[in-house]
Amino acid sequence: MSGLEVVGPLDPNFGWADGALLTGRECGLSAALFHELRGAFACVHGENGKTVLIRDPLGINKLFWAVGEGGSVLVAARPYHLVRAGCAFEDVSAVPAGTAIEIDWEPGGGPVGAVHSAGWPDSAGMRGDSVEAIAARIGSTLDRYCAALAQVHSEARVFVCLSGGLDSSGVAVLARTHFRRVTAVSFDLERRGGPPSADRSAAARLARDLGLSFLPVTVTEDQLLEGLDTALADGIDWRDFNVHAALVNVALARGIADACAAGGSGRTAIVLTGDLANEFLVDYHPEQYRGRTYYPLPRLSPAALQRVLVRGLETSHREVGPFQAWGLPVLQVYAPAVDYYLQLPEPFLADAQRKERLSRLMFGDEIPDYVYTRPKTRAQVGDVETGRGVLAACIDRGLDEAWLRHRFAELHGVNDAAALQRFLRAGRYRSSVPGAPLP
Amino acid sequence: MIHADIAERIERFIRTQFRVAASDTRFSRSQPLFELGYVDSVGVVELLAFVTKEFGVEVPDEMLMSEEFSTIDGIAAIVCRLSQRPEESALANS
Lengths: 439, 94
Prior knowledge:
The complex is a heterodimer.
Chain A: E1 4-6, E2 14-17, E3 20-22, H1 31-36, E4 38-40, E5 42-47, E6 50-55, E7 64-67, E8 73-76, H2 79-84, E9 93-94, E10 99-105, E11 111-117, H3 131-152, E12 157-161, H4 166-178, E13 182-189, H5 198-210, E14 213-219, H6 221-225, H7 228-235, H8 240-263, E15 269-273, H9 277-280, E16 287-289, E17 292-294, H10 302-311, H11 320-325, E18 330-332, H12 338-341, H13 346-349, H14 354-363, H15 369-373, H16 390-395, H17 401-411, H18 418-421, E19 424-425, E20 428-429
Chain B: H1 3-17, H2 41-55, H3 61-64, H4 72-84, H5 90-93
């Protein structure tokens, strides 16, 4: 190997360490700061024959690598960037999450250097505090994080993906507190003259109550599915739940990009989402459609499932990837508070009202009561009344997980489906350090 | 821990957890579990959790992605190695 080259744009950084925001692409982190690093952060920096690569402990930002022609190491935020640069998908590996790698490129020899592992945020042994105390720490962290972001991006046009659920409502409250130009964005599928979905109605009402501008993004099923290749390649995933979520985000990204272009202000746009809270609070369940079960979950205790879901954030890019494909940086607001979420007591994680309880502690009556009490709907599943969501739109067209896997393989030049199994398994990517042998 | 004992415990878990029929003559410790559909993408998470809880080892990513981690015998061999060399376990490195 003879040096390193970055292919394509890297994901924007919204790191958080020691109460400070890390947004630069320079990898100038001290060892102490590296071990504190949270939020989305991945960087590559080369100087004087040395290269530093850093990836945040949750792996929110992605870094992949492969050896290119001529022996140089190619690094990219998407596997398909490496495939287009001539690398075989089977040779692509992720830079491990939570690592800082220093490489010296020795002339005529292989790379040598150091690998520092931050370990994975795992406070499972510290589940002793009260939910009230933990909620206060989460709230304080998110307030400081958003305040720091607002200072750096004071002139940005901020878009909040507002589903009408508690997580995104909390983000909307934080955005209203800290940013000046906030627009709530709501996704819905066109309902052929029928009423909007319950989620759309709730989002519109909440935006009005919070005094936010409102941007409805309504697409037909055909328009939604036009985003499939982007959802697969930029979402770096073929698993149905993640692809369905990515399809919603592709539609939102397109809507936001169109609104920015039409507005012509030239201001930077940032998208805020409440993603991650579902993993942190184990707020997923299987869904039924036409007699089949979709989105099954591993049969584990709540704490074990939380750990699996949080660790699985390392794979899939269903939030960041689709927005980034439209040049929109996306910020997952709950990210820096992961350690506190992992301290929540196991009985709390088993409480069916946990999300409402925690949100009330964090946001109180800043979130109107109708948001706390309304039933949750996922855009993937759709409205109870109309029964149509992204899941139905895909399944009714034969676009099941086997089809999605096949299309992902096609997009990445993979002929052998087993190669995908060796790339992503149990929520983890195949990962290794540049210079180390592939598994 | 010896390999045969580990393999037997893994096999018992898989047969019970994923309801492998007693009459299934194709199922064996050398068959590829994922390729033949005995364990799906959700099931492999349950299998990993079982391995950690039952044997006190956590499988590092490079072993999880290996060909070896596709059969009961292969998984048992990995567990054997990790038990004998705890420094290789992901638990030791976390």
